[in-house]
Amino acid sequence: MDLTVAELRDTPSVGIIxxxxxxxxxxxxxxxxGCRVELFERRKHLGGRAGSFHDPEWDxxxxxxxxxxxxxxxxxxxxxxxxxxxxxxxRHRALNFIGPxxxxxxFAPSRWLPAPLHLAPALWRLRFLSVxxxxxxxxxxxxxxxxxxxxxxxxxxxxxLRWQGQSxxxxxxxxxxxxxxxxxxxxxxxxxxxxxxxxTDGMMAxxxxxxxxxxxxxxxxxxHRRGGDWLAARGVAxxxxxxxxxxxxxxxxxxxxVLDTGSRRxxxxxxxxxxxxxxxxxxxxxxxxxxxEMAPMARFESAPITAVHLTFDRPxxxxxxxxxxxxxxxxxFAGGAEEGRRRYAVVISASHELVGTDPDALAERVxxxxxxxxxxxxxxxxxxxxxxxxxxxxxxxxxATEPYRPAQMSGVEGLFFAGDWTATxxxxxMESAVRSGYLAAEGVLRALGRPEPILAAxxxxxRLAGWTFGQ
Length: 471
Ligand SMILES: Cc1cc2nc3c(=O)[nH]c(=O)nc-3n(C[C@H](O)[C@H](O)[C@H](O)COP(=O)(O)OP(=O)(O)OC[C@H]3O[C@@H](n4cnc5c(N)ncnc54)[C@H](O)[C@@H]3O)c2cc1C
Prior knowledge:
Number of helices: 14
CATH superfamily of the largest domain: FAD/NAD(P)-binding domain
Radius of gyration: 23 Å
Number of strands: 20
Bound molecules: flavin-adenine dinucleotide
CATH architecture of the largest domain: 3-Layer(bba) Sandwich
Largest sheet: 5 strands, parallel
Shape: globular
């Protein structure tokens, strides 16, 4: 039974566990709608996985890993705008593929053709693929956009692409760079509907969907400092470096949060916004038994991402970013520059085989690849390198787990879940995290008897795209 406002104190209280984007989005939405919000974050900083470290070499905050958003990420954009830093992202319409021969191929969808036809000229210009491969890729992209029969929805992308007649080269040079970097998982561990989503919503639905948005400031500055200031100014009590131990119940509903210190805090509502591999640990056995949706979570698997940060004594390319198909290094992002030095980050998603590798050997391998891709890199001196693998960067979008992502509203009154792993329809991204926080906030408002839509609208779908998707 939902509570009415009269049954609660004048200002309903909400305890949020987790200060990543999911917890922050829920806090932001509820604080401006009359709730008294207290947020507990185990670390010293807000932002969770979307965070930065302080690099003594540069005396600057540097993102653990470059974070990319796309034009289709309307909720992340809404969140950043509300918190006052919507302008801190640079838009990039074109991707730069560096072919095996070190030549640059611009993937720049047409500004004039309607979606999804706008992609055709860009695909055609990827001349490191044979004409047959380009035609076949185009055919399969269109096929992917159509509704898929049940037996195909249960497959993984690697099998499905083979079955669609994609060549080794097309898989290595096109499908891998696009899907592995978007979903941070290898093709044999990506459920077909998730791969389909990348192409439909992330590329084909509208002309602006694919546009890359890259932060122009460190994530620490955006989410921790500016985001934290905004939340605090709206009355959110930010409890940093305060880990929660578990959620307690009061009768049939959730009663509040027990902190690591043993202190017990009562709340009308609790939003549990921790990562997928932590959530069950914050629920005691008796509560878990009342949450059957949590059982499949024990089978959720993680995917690693590796970031290699390199400082050279000069620029190695004028490009702000580049895709490096057919190599271990998948993406290059240019970072800060100072007289006599230039910083870059190389991202390797689904880096299963790199977990536990010697970071220096890995940095050397990446440096050698960059020297092959950019002639200037072979003349540049590497001043500093740091390779970090995040073993549980995202949850794996496996066919066996995707259907079991739990809803934000739990089976126990007063308890909500948020996090990129909840049922948002989106892969593990900042967009999914913000959506989940907004959806949890919508659930709290519904339970208070004052439902209100918080989720931002998707980009309008081009008419021709809707027809292509068969919807
Ligand atoms: C290396 C890497 C690269 C990525 N690249 C991209 C990208 O390019 N684009 C993109 O969109 N996404 C990217 N992502 C994914 C993105 O960062 C996440 O999807 C998003 O930040 C998840 O937000 P969240 O709030 O759901 O979870 P989290 O960020 O994990 O937040 C959960 C919070 O809960 C806290 N917590 C855990 N236990 C407790 C406890 N007991 N008490 C209190 N607090 C607790 C944690 O400290 C954390 O701050 C990347 C992730 C990684 C790791």
